[in-house]
């Protein structure tokens, strides 16, 4: 459990350092998730030492939204003044996320089908 948390925190730290070093406008935790994803792709599976703390974090994910909710209340006037920018960025990011998710799912499905054909011959 501690080893898994250490891996998660190290990936986040690497992501933060990488984004500061590159000066890229991507949040460090997002870069850390990409680093973790690449590591898991290379490793080939999710080890149990990483699975347990990740499932624990997902189970209590709602607690991580409390700071965001407080921020919405604190900056409510600012958000109301710039509602069009906020709304368009939310809609744009949601659309991009949907397109990327659909593309990833389709790519993974195609990969799985081609892999099955390779293992069991043409059907």
Describe the structure.
It contains six helices and no strands. It is mainly α and 123 residues long. The N and C termini lie far apart (43 Å). Keywords: Cell membrane, Membrane, Transmembrane, Transmembrane helix. It is a multi-pass membrane protein. Its main location: membrane.
| Spatial gap, N to C terminus | 43 Å
Q: Percent of residues in beta strands?
A: under 5%
Helix content: over 70%
- Helical stretch count? 6
The overall strand count is: 0
The secondary structure category is mainly alpha
**What order do the helices and strands follow?**
HHHHHH
Features:
123 residues, mainly alpha, 0% strand
Describe how the helices and strands are arranged.
Layout: H1 2-22, H2 28-43, H3 48-59, H4 66-74, H5 76-81, H6 83-120
Helix pairs in contact: 1-2, 1-3
Question: What's the gist of this structure?
Answer:
With 123 residues, the protein is mainly alpha-helical. The chain has helices spanning 2-22, 28-43, 48-59, 66-74, 76-81, 83-120.
